[in-house]
Write a structure and sequence with these properties.
mainly beta, four-stranded mixed sheet, 1 helix, disordered N terminus
């Protein structure tokens, strides 16, 4: 229930206190010498990878600096219903200038995706997403554990969003096919 304390942490477990500030940020999507593009992200890192150990608790504060409401849905993580991030169903949306704190302990190991469920194509499409890796059941430590998160940005040559995804005025010519591939 909302307001209930999170479950006790396992012996030796940590609590991770994270702040996700959802906002527009500049990013160089066309290489280090390319123009700046405007993306939406939870941090200065694009599509960050967050790692914890099984039994660790998470306290994640979402601060919304976007011009529309948002949330964080912890895709695949078994969380208390009030922490699930589905606006109007499991929580109210987090409006512009508002914040919400998610508190839970993921019970399972695995690789999970976090993203908003508000205007999902628009917000995730602009980069608002991250990966959560819960480690702890490996019989032997891996040589490497690398997350490959792919995002099809398709910016125009000047770094702006793909012209095919922008609204066109009635009667305006269709955008070039360059971004549509």
């Amino acid at each position: 229930m909302p307001g209930d304390p999170p479950p006790p942490e396992a012996p030796g477990a940590r609590r991770h206190d994270w702040t996700f500030r959802a906002q527009e940020r500049p990013a160089r999507l066309l290489g280090p010498d390319g123009p700046l593009s405007r993306v939406w992200s939870y941090s200065d890192a694009l599509l960050p990878v967050l790692r914890i150990r099984q039994g660790d608790a998470i306290r994640a504060r979402l601060e919304n600096a976007l011009p529309e409401h948002t949330s964080i849905h912890w895709h695949g993580v078994r969380v208390p219903n009030a922490m699930d991030g589905v606006q109007y169903l499991t929580q109210p949306p987090v409006g512009p200038g508002q914040s919400f704190t998610y508190e839970f302990t993921p019970p399972d190991t695995g690789t999970f995706f976090l993203h908003p469920h508000c205007n999902e194509p628009g917000q995730v499409g602009r980069g608002l997403a991250a990966t959560l890796v819960v480690e702890g059941d490996e019989p032997e430590p891996p040589d490497a554990d690398i997350v490959l998160a792919c995002k099809d940005w398709r910016p125009a040559e000047d770094g702006t969003g793909c012209p095919s995804r922008r609204r066109r005025a009635p009667g305006a010519p269709a955008p070039s096919a360059r971004c549509g591939r």
